[in-house]
Amino acid sequence: MLERIRIVLIGTSHPGNIGGVARAMHNMGLAELALVAPRCEVITQDSISRASGADHLLHQASVHATLEEAVADCTLAVGASARSRTLPWPMLSPRELAGRLPAECQPEGARVALVFGREDSGLTNAELQRCHAHVHIPTNADFSSLNLAAAVQVLAYECRMAWLNQADGQADAPSVAPVSDGEELATHAELERYFEHLERTLIGIDFHDPDQPRQLMARLRRLYLRARPERMEMNILRGILSATEKATHRKPS
Ligand code: SAH
Questions:
Q1: Nearest 5 degrees, angle CA 99-CA 104-CA 105?
Q2: Looking at the chain, which terminus has fewer C-beta neighbours within 10 angstroms, N or C?
Q3: How far is Cα 104 from Cα 38, in angstroms, rounded to an integer?
Q4: What is the pLDDT along the chain (253 residues), one digit of tens a residue?
Q5: Strand pairing partners for 80?
Q6: pTM of the full predicted structure?
Q7: Residues whose beta carbon lies within 6 Å of some atom of ligand 1
Q8: Any residues with CB less than 8 A from the CB of 123 and at least 6 apart, and which?
Q9: CA of 135 to the centre of ligand 1 (A)
């Protein structure tokens, strides 16, 4: 999926921003960068330093005279815009866009372009009207324009999350329980006291051998942490441990 997503930058004027975009893309596993009429050198000290090791994307970037040329083979083009425009266009949030990507990228010849504008003036209306939809990153209404590389980072992250969610095996990962309402949760320190007590008790009843731990305590930790015990439940569990210790002391050896 990620290999079918192209980042298109129109009229970028700072090499450092192109480098920052390359870094953001490579961090999130995107690899196709297309530059439309850049207003600066692409390979400079600044762009290479901002790319921080992702400069191969700068060297591989394609350069085009027009947006039409850069997206000619694309089946979906989405323009990223900080401002709302007078003629309303289909609008997506970054997450809605990400939700569509698995299906959009599915067909063999599918190519998705995410199009970003100039640092000083963004995308023109004509450019936005060449896109199927617009995406706006929700921001403080009084300060809505992100740095170009930061905007690419946000959308690239959403692409990666969509890809991860559809990847196999995700469903197998244990998840943490949501906070239960009303009751006070046990604190970290209370849980740690409980784990110490539990380990002591399990050694005392010969269930746990610290010389052959077999990840027992790690597995038990994972179980209890996943359950998010409340303070009251923690007290019950500690009470059970104390009773267990008492009972084993009473037992004739
Ligand atoms: N000053 C410009 C914005 C330039 S920021 C303007 O007012 O339009 C450079 C590019 O980053 C924008 O063209 C857009 O593609 C992207 N960008 C910045 N902030 C964004 C936001 N909040 N939502 C979507 N894209 C954004």
A1: 105
A2: C
A3: 28
A4: 999 999 999 999 999 999 999 999 999 999 999 999 999 999 999 999 999 999 999 999 999 999 999 999 999 999 999 987 777 889 999 999 999 999 999 988 899 999 999 999 999 999 999 999 999 999 999 999 999 999 999 999 999 999 999 875 555 566 777 776 777 888 888 999 999 999 999 999 999 999 998 889 888 988 888 888 889 999 999 999 999 999 998 876 5
A5: 135
A6: 0.79
A7: 80-83, 116-117, 119, 121-123, 135-137, 139, 144-146, 148, 151
A8: 10, 79, 80, 81, 115, 116, 117
A9: 10
Ligand 1 center–CA 91 separation, angstroms:
15
Question: Given the CA of residue 138, which atom of ligand 1 is nearest to it?
Answer: 22
> Residue 197 and residue 94: Cα distance in Å, rounded?
47
What is d(CA 81, CA 144) in angstroms, rounded to the nearest whole number? 10
Specify the residue with its C-alpha closest to ligand 1, atom 20: 82
Q: For tokens 């997506």, what's the residue?
A: 92
Give 167's contacts (C-beta < 8 A, 6+ positions apart): none
* C-alpha 88 – ligand 1 centre gap (Å): 17
Pick from 18, 81, 116, 144 the residue to mutate for probing ligand 1's pocket: most ligand atoms within 8 Å of its CB: 81
Question: Structure tokens of 249?
Answer: 């002391």
Among 20, 27, 12, 14, residue whose Cα is nearest residue 156: 27
Output the residue whose Cα is nearest ligand 1's atom 21.
Answer: 82
- d(CA 33, CA 209) in angstroms, rounded, equals 56
Considering only CA atoms, which of 220, 162, 159 is closest in space to residue 194? 220
Q: Among the atoms of ligand 1, which is closest to the Cα of residue 79? A: 15
